Amino acid sequence: MIIFLVKHFNKKISGILSISEIIGMGELAALGAMFAGGLSNIFFKSQGQNISPIAINTIKISVGAIGFFIAGFIIQGVKLFTIIPLTNFLILCLALLIGFVIGDTLYLISQHHIGVSIAFPIALSYPLLTYLFSILMVNEAFTWVKSIGIVIVLLGVFLISKSSSSRSNDANGYSDEPQELPQKKTNKIYIFFAMGAAVCWALGTVILQIGLEDHGVIEANAIRMFFGAGVLYSIFRVQEKKPLTSFQRRSIGIIILGAIIGTLIGNSLYLIAVQEIGATTTSAITASAPMVSTPLSALFLKEKVSFWLIIATILTVTGIILIIS
């Protein structure tokens, strides 16, 4: 976030070297966003037994709303409240509801039941669906290279899904929790949750692209995340019937730390990378986030990672790179 503000203001200061002239800044920012996304998911997963998915998502978006609002107010001042037209505001809110509220909640539920090492790679296939939605909604051109990437991604997702059927009942770290359905059937259900998250993220991203036309991302996020935080908190209170403060302070603190890393720092670094090296290269780098979350989930959360799961993750990332190349 600080880097983004420096980037914004340094354009107004004569005689000072522009950040865009620093060699490798964009690549470093993209790598940072990749690590931030993978690392933050480990924080959220670690507290899955202590805090419900809807509560985790509410804390995440609240941290994002506060952070982006402060940044937006510093950049725009009181104009922040009027800079986004009503039509664009509604489109941005729709994108947030689909992508952040529904998509993230589906993902966190899936992650809770089948683990980061399976849920994260499946959900990270969303650039594939983003490409398909872009063809349908914003007339993006079809290419054979991207088509080959689609096939590779589908193969990777298939192998990831198949690998879950051979996992033991305690592989997701929640074997002490009762399951209403047999384990194999339960795993398949939550694999569909992860796929649903991918669909929501993809659709939300394309709608976001439409709503962001001629408007700054920080300013748009400042407004829409406050809207999303209000919606999610209302859903949380209806579902949980208790305040967020009812959870352990340590658990809340860990979720907030994960949100700072993923929602604030990760998003800010991603924006810098897009501005410096473009969306294609940035997406190619940040799509490699499963390479971070998979070994970390095995190292810190003691999840079992099979050889075929590693191969499937590599295939998924390779396909995504081809799609966005």
Question: Roughly what fraction of the amino acids lie in strands?
Answer: under 5%
**E-strand count:** 0
Oligomer: single chain
Shape: globular
Distance between the termini: 28 Å
Q: Sketch the topology as an H/E string, one letter per element.
A: HHHHHHHHHHHHH
Class of secondary structure makeup: mainly alpha
Helix content bin: over 70%
Largest sheet: none
The tally of helices reads: 13
Radius of gyration over all CA atoms, rounded: 19 Å
How would you state the average pLDDT, rounded?
A: 75
How is this structure best summarized?
This protein has helices at 2-10, 25-46, 53-76, 86-114, 116-123, 126-137, 144-164, 183-211, 217-240, 249-277, 279-286, 290-300, 307-324.
Detailed description of the structure:
Helix 2 packs parallel to helix 11, helix 4 packs antiparallel against helix 8 and helix 5 packs parallel to helix 8 (183-211). The radius of gyration is 19 Å and the shape is globular. The longest helix is centred in the N-terminal third of the chain and has 29 residues, at 86-114. The protein is 75% helix and 0% strand. It is mostly helical and 325 residues long.
